[in-house]
Amino acid sequence: MIGAGDGGLPTLRIRKRVTLTDQLYGQILEQIVSGALKEGEKLPSEHQICDAFAVSRPVVREALRKLRDDGLIEARRGVGSFVRRRPPQGLIQFAPADSVAGLMRAIEARMTVEKATARYAAIRAGAEQIDRIEAALIALEASMRARAPSRDADFAFHLAVAEASGNEAFVTMLNATRESTERAIEVAQSITRGGSQARIERVMREHRQIFDAIAGRDADAAGLAMAYHLLQARQRITDHAREE
Amino acid sequence: MIGAGDGGLPTLRIRKRVTLTDQLYGQILEQIVSGALKEGEKLPSEHQICDAFAVSRPVVREALRKLRDDGLIEARRGVGSFVRRRPPQGLIQFAPADSVAGLMRAIEARMTVEKATARYAAIRAGAEQIDRIEAALIALEASMRARAPSRDADFAFHLAVAEASGNEAFVTMLNATRESTERAIEVAQSITRGGSQARIERVMREHRQIFDAIAGRDADAAGLAMAYHLLQARQRITDHAREE
Amino acid sequence: MIGAGDGGLPTLRIRKRVTLTDQLYGQILEQIVSGALKEGEKLPSEHQICDAFAVSRPVVREALRKLRDDGLIEARRGVGSFVRRRPPQGLIQFAPADSVAGLMRAIEARMTVEKATARYAAIRAGAEQIDRIEAALIALEASMRARAPSRDADFAFHLAVAEASGNEAFVTMLNATRESTERAIEVAQSITRGGSQARIERVMREHRQIFDAIAGRDADAAGLAMAYHLLQARQRITDHAREE
Amino acid sequence: MIGAGDGGLPTLRIRKRVTLTDQLYGQILEQIVSGALKEGEKLPSEHQICDAFAVSRPVVREALRKLRDDGLIEARRGVGSFVRRRPPQGLIQFAPADSVAGLMRAIEARMTVEKATARYAAIRAGAEQIDRIEAALIALEASMRARAPSRDADFAFHLAVAEASGNEAFVTMLNATRESTERAIEVAQSITRGGSQARIERVMREHRQIFDAIAGRDADAAGLAMAYHLLQARQRITDHAREE
Hints:
4 copies of one chain form a homotetramer.
Chain A: H1 20-34, H2 46-53, H3 57-69, E1 73-76, E2 80-83, H4 90-93, H5 100-124, H6 127-145, H7 151-163, H8 168-176, H9 178-193, H10 197-215, H11 219-238
Antiparallel strand pairs in A: 1-2
Organism (chains A, B, C, D): Halovulum marinum
Domain HTH gntR-type (chains A, B, C, D): 18-86
InterPro entries (chains A, B, C, D): GntR_C, TF_FadR/GntR_C, Tscrpt_reg_HTH_GntR, WH-like_DNA-bd_sf, WH_DNA-bd_sf
């Protein structure tokens, strides 16, 4: 069932055409990561960016909005945009820079969808489905303890929760954005791998909390633990300072 | 962009294999709609259903859970399950009975996803995107006034909101469940078409409220209006008594 | 239990000192309702308002923000604030103008709190508590049919839902804002009373939906129906055009 | 303003009459904490509890439901209730056992209310209000580093967030449940004080995340960080195993 769209055939993994917005996002991101644009530094004006990249105003505005939503730049009214935060090297080392905007969007969408899957799983999961979530969790924890976190175990954990939600439409949705999700997991894990032992333990703890809440049949706690985990993942990916 | 999965090729519309659970759901549903099982009547026991349909206990349990979640039957602890509500004829006239469980699941998933798209659209939509949502709304309203509600205009409205959310992953997700969604729209519209003028006006009002909240930049109101509209759609589909 | 704070004695109803912000809000509101400031008209600048009312800049900003949040004015970046909507006469006829900002805030807070009480009531209410909610609903409906909607029946309905939530802290919270809530109910009812039959039926329908969802044990639907009802109440209070 | 109900006089702190339900909850809790009832052990039947405590069936049911909602016992259908988790000694050492049910309810209600205050604060807080939240945070952190966590600094932090929400009704609501909240903070801090350095750092980190999200104007992250913090507080209070 996994890997096929709703009523569709299994899909080939062809890399999606990248929008101009996401290309521009990627180029600005690269300059922030490399330090060509430093924290606190002012970005060129919208007008200057239009000219330099030969793109239209709406494209520039959307790219800046996405950088802002991701916490990388901030706007000061009537003054311009400034670099707020320098993400870790890993962010563009493990994913093409022009894929990062899409990858961050996938995490945002998953915060909505997986909060719901975790809630429903706490209410509806059968004993066998709980077991499958736990098995994925144990595999993930083993790989993390060995400092070789498994992308497949991580995705399997999230998919097992979705399958336990009793609503296949959620599974279809997660699979439809699987490519971005797997890439997001790879980036996050690559950054975690290089991080402290404390960080690895935090990530393990976050997954364990999701499972405990589902197994304990606490829907509010399960939804919250899932959304919090994805929020943390988003911050680990973008925030250099947190990369202890 | 629409119609293709994330990183995939446009998908053929092949009808998905129907699970045993959804087949069983469909058969019980048919008996409720036909009146073979009357409102208030007790269903056969889980054990009897296992035997009659030659399916396993977990299949029976899941089918009953879905019927319960959809408000069609209710469980009385230690006694059994009873028919709670008789849905309108249109429900199985305009969709195969074994597709109804999936169609209801798609609406549930959309309540989660589209609440988020409406919220984000209220915050992020550009002027051009607001115009596109309004254009779809006007086309939908015109078709409804002519008592020939347009499925495509309805889907276009919801998709325009998703596109205005500034997050393509949501668009990908809605497209991935497009088949079920379009069928749900068809069923709801067929029932609305046969309903009172008051009902048609209520449905128009619901869409108008979503648009007003997005255009008015009120994220809370937009998310709420969208979720409420889908909740009402779900009830119109299943509740005979409301079919005024 | 009702009427007493958490751990406190029953409180005297003394009218709270009105903040400068809410006084300023009330004065601008009066001019919008009277038509001295017309729909679409530009408000004086922040600076001019500071001078005219002899208040500080933060007071002006907060008053304008509240008017904006309530949908009465809108800001156009770099241009100023404009009247967006003219509320019905009833809004300042049945409540002191300087109490309206607080009354709107109480509704906003109740959207959060009562969404939760309705959800928990659907999960936890005992049979007796369901009966009490229904009794309050029937009394409210009778008063509405007689075109003399009862404030006490309305408040009793909302309080019965809170009591069925199984969490007394919510009851304490609703009672702590009882004065504003009762005034908001009075204003809404006075406007409803003067409205069309269709409007009265819509308000009855909203309450009925909340009850049905709680009695049907559907937590998502119950929370949604409650939040939607309060959103509608807020709009009925402020939106002249909707006052059919 | 703080300490007074909406439109009321400052309230005396008189200890509220304890309901039979909460007294029964407290007595069962004491037996779980003392080990008289061990983890995994079966509780007496509802009938036996009715007789032993001379209370009615509804009182027993509500007490058991609250214990279940708080994760202390679990029901196995058709078998009975079993002790699920033994809370730390501190829970009844620092608060009367018959106040614990109310204290847990206050945390649950705050999860709803403070998620909203954190969201609105991220959207609406002025610079001065952000400063006040940060000042409370710094005072709280200083007290925690000195291993003497300050109850007043903790409450002040949460109140400063509510005041920054731009909605006084939320402040009124928090003050109305202040007694329970302060007691919950005392219990949580007493347990934290006796815990590991890692635990103290986690609690500090949770507060810091709430502040960062508000200061960064990220409403979703702020609401989530606040709800997560209160969820963790609830678990720290009740879960012996987590008391590292």
